[in-house]
Design a protein that fits this description.
Layout lengths: L8 H22 L6 H14 L3 E5 L2 H11 L7 E5 L5 H8 L3 E5 L10 H7 L4 E5 L10 H11 L2 E5 L7 E3 L5 E3 L6 E5 L13 E5 L2 H10 L4 E3 L2 E2 L10 H10 L3 H19 L5 E2 L15 E5 L4 H10 L29 H9 E4 L7 H15 L2
Parallel strand pairs: 2-3, 2-4, 4-5, 5-8
Antiparallel strand pairs: 1-9, 6-7, 8-9, 10-11, 12-13, 13-14
Helix pairs in contact: 1-8, 2-8, 3-4, 3-7, 9-12
The structure holds pyridoxal-5'-phosphate.
Length: 377
Amino acid sequence: MKKIQMVDLKGQYAKIKDVVNDSIQEVLETTAFVNGPMVHSFQKNLEHYLNVKHVIPCANGTDALQIAMMGLGLKPGDEVITTDFTFAATVEVIALLQLTPVLVDVEPDTFNINVEAIKNAITPKTKAIVPVHLFGQCANMEAIMEIAKAHNLYVIEDNAQAIGATYTYKDGTKVKAGTIGDVSATSFFPSKNLGCYGDGGAIFTNNDELAHIIRGIVNHGMYERYHHDVVGVNSRLDAIQAAVLEAKLPNLDSYNDARRTAANKYDAAFKDEAKITTPFRNGAEDNHVFHQYTLKVSGVDRDALAKYLNENDIPCGVYYPIPLHNQKAYKDSRYNEADFKVTNQLVKEVISLPMHTELDDEQIDFITSKVKAFING
Ligand SMILES: *Cc1c(COP(=O)(O)O)cnc(C)c1O
């Protein structure tokens, strides 16, 4: 059996080596290392794939979130509601811009931001909501957009974990994750569903004016060479990373299919296990792209299970072990533990199993048999 990896970038690269190498070679020959034709071409292809008017490439997903918020003109003291159960980058940029993060609880089944909790957190200072499509599954965007409209709030989608996921409206209309809110941010970190071989990110929007503002912000606030109209940042997608992404984008759907296939096999293996809750699928099959495959275990010592798997050469992860409202950097006296019932429970119960495009049946059988052996110990 091949050694099991949490994410098998080597195995994936082996299959696309020639295409990726040729694409990188092209950048080396043109020596357009920052911006230039490769970045432009990837941008256009991603706009087409997502069916969104504007993709603005940038240096990483954290920058993408920050720049999206700068582009909307959010001001110090504005309150931004987001989820208590996400990677810290989401709340980090809110705090960095001196906006006030307002963390709220999540739904116990999807792990995504709880719509009722958003409603309860709205104050006259609230300016934006940042839903995160956690682990590859869209938040309840239809309800979130309704709340935003009713209260005149911006919606910034954190799409770092869900590129290629589909969101299905109640009437059956399908759109790509990250094209619903006012603006959205994604990451091309190597382990993400569309990963480059270094850092990369992008901002998406259908708003022409906002896209124009953001294109200036990513480039030192310049709209005309050496005229700095706003305070910007230096956040550009490296052309060599764009070359990798250009080579990989045509495979994104098949990569997400491979992840779903692996998830289905895990689900089937665990279906009779009373102590395991497999990931909830909210609606259509293509809504979830399984950035992570995350179980909830009950009546099981989760940390002992993780240790046992590691001893058997099975990597696993706990995303996330501490709710953000309890992180030193983001504590706030206004929070009340009783308002975080779900995240406080999830941090004790979740465990993510290896999930990537190269998992084979032998590996999945081995992983599931070890999990079951421990649980039924
Ligand atoms: C990865 C990630 C980010 C940040 O992306 P980087 O490219 O690593 O800066 C932001 N939000 C979420 C939910 C992520 O998973």
